Amino acid sequence: MDRRDFVKTSAAGVAAAAVPAGLAADAATDARPLVAPSLHLRRARPLCVSDVSSIRYRNGGPETAIERAFRGITEGEDVLDAIVAGVNIPELDPAERGIGYGGLPNADGIVQLDSCLMHGPRRWAGGVAGIEGVRTPSLVAKAVAELTDHHLIVGEGAREFARALGFEIEDDLNTEESRGLWLEWRRRIDPGHWLDPEERIRGLSRSGEETDPDRIGRRGGGAALDVAERGALGTQPQAAGVRSAAAPYLRDHEHEERLRLFYQASLAAGLSMVDDGLISENSFWGTTSLEAVSAEGDLCGVTTTSGLSWKIPGRAGDSPILGAGQYVDNEVGAVGSTGRGEANLINCASFLTVEFMRQGMSPKDAGMATLARIRDNTIESRLLNERGLPNFDVRFFVLNKAGEYAGVALYGSGESAFAVCDENGAREEPLEGLLEGSPRG
Length: 441
Known about the structure:
Blueprint: H1 3-8, E1 47-50, H2 53-56, H3 65-74, H4 79-92, E2 113-119, E3 124-131, H5 137-147, E4 152-154, H6 155-164, H7 176-189, H8 197-201, H9 226-232, H10 236-246, H11 255-275, H12 281-285, E5 288-293, E6 299-305, E7 326-329, E8 333-339, H13 341-347, H14 349-358, H15 363-377, E9 394-400, E10 405-411, E11 417-422, E12 425-430, E13 432-435
Helix pairs in contact: 3-4, 4-5, 9-10, 9-11, 14-15
């Protein structure tokens, strides 16, 4: 084929490195002895797995992301072309607040998007992080894979790369709804400067009332840090520490301590909005990841996100990082993830899951073994709930070359389903949790 046709077909993937034979030995969920790597000799069945955003949003059209991806694969499209066309649907849907246009912004109110993708057969990969102004970061990541010698372009450079290729660059990707939610978040963490309009109309503010945001409280009572004290950060010892550290009103604290407490209160305020039903849990953590295999056994994956809501500007989680939020090996399988990105980053979680499958584990057992690794490596008190377990969730969507799949999570509560599409159609199936109960209690 000529170069024009060649670059139109998307690609990605990196060669997976072999791991020591004892890699799976400490997996709490699988005590079986290691076996030789699986040989997938039988013909695969076309299949897509994903988080629920890929089945719940249509952007006014006839298909969801997972339906569009599966149709494209069965009609002969390149697998990566098909799944990227799929995730473009929720990326463009303003009702989906975890990715693309209308995704919840960072702490400055700016929507910054991340994406990465991998093409198993060609061993191509591409990603962008912190890109602004482009509604479909997955298409820019695809261009990185097709047109450059790089795997990751970030920030202003990613935006200018997209501009040079003719992508429309917009000044603001907020919708009226996402901007309104950002203002509510600001009000909850900074009530001295951002007033509650309903309470102000009712005349509840009083003459001489304290206006220092480090001293006053939400709706006139306790500091914004009280949200953390009520357990929104998931650990009682920490909550007490927040109150102790804050007294007397942070007057004598160093800048670093003030910043740390601010971002603790920031996270707590965001989680309180989840508790109040203003945003869904999956939108707060905000990611969609779609993995697929063709009848020929070719594997591809794509992940796209607006990242953690109200994140520190410039923060990049696991979604644009190969091996963390996404990994594909065409000889073994594909894995995508949603949830706490930092947990996936520090554990190279998607790569690890593929390596467990290379050692002979099923998709479910491989995902559970990685979740066990995350659990065991989570030791900081700020990341533990009152039971001494992680106070966050992580989910994996796992697919092997034979078309066997699984959806697993640290906890099976909260976001409790994942999406599948095969010859029987698109549907939601329950996630299987490693741990009982809720991450926050």
